[in-house]
Amino acid sequence: MKTIKLKAPAKINLTLEVLRKLPNGFHEVRFTMARINNIYDEISIIFESGKKYIIVKSSNNGIPLNEKNICFKATKIFFEETGKSAGVSIYIKKNIPIGAGLGGGSSDGAATLKILNKYFHHPVSDKRIIEMASEIGKDIPFFFSSKGASLIEGMGEKISETFIFPKSNILLVNPNIHISTKHAYERLSPIIEKIKRKENISRKMMAAIKKNDVGLIAKYLYNDFEIILEKEQSIIKEIKDELIKLGALGALMTGSGSTVFGIFKNRKEILAAKRKMKIKYPDFFVEIG
Length: 289
Description:
With 289 residues, the protein is of the alpha+beta class. The chain folds into two domains: 2-163, 2-Layer Sandwich (Ribosomal Protein S5, domain 2); 169-288, Alpha-Beta Plaits. It is built from nine helices and eleven strands. Strands 1, 2, 3, 4, 5, 6 and 8 form a seven-stranded mixed β-sheet that branches. The chain has a four-stranded antiparallel β-sheet with strand order 9-10-7-11. The longest helix has 16 residues, at 104-119. It is globular and about 60 Å long.
């Protein structure tokens, strides 16, 4: 038996534009994402040669542990693609909140594919494994990037450009509310054409990242889903306002929620903000990214 472990980092959306609903029922989107390396799940896979099984276990009972699990799906598609086989026991130590807009599931799936490819001595090319990843989940290819941020278009599967995300002081707050992506899109779809936003805000964000300008990055934070979700879940706006009050240069909900993050100028300010947010919201997930 052999065990391979890998960290599966979280992500945040710095911008998220939902441009239109497509005839196939999906949506055309454009957004920028950045990896949050300080917050991560831990994936451990034990391989038993000469056997054929997939077992998934987790520290969190809120995720499926059967064929619906994203790590299970990743393993299955890998074996189908390569013709390889082994007994595989996957353990997911969940640190990233579930259904929080932080990409925990997608990152877990990416980590699983990376571990499998490593164990079997890389039978799948980098290009092909990313194609496989997109068949399981639209966000998974992002976690294969060697750089920390990407501009993503299409239906969420097209990585148009990747770039290094500057070291930033980011505080994440999750109010323990699960908002399904499906619900968020259903609520947003009827008003997509009425949304007024700065022209191509995602490309402006990309330029700000390339300039390594944290102030500009904070200025261009944007998420279409906030339009409807701040009305449905007032705590999202409340957290954003509180982060700004505590000195954040900007604050935003990531993905379809419900995690909110703020960008701070320096370490001293973010540590003070974290202490105060933990006192104000003792039951919330509050961590520096």
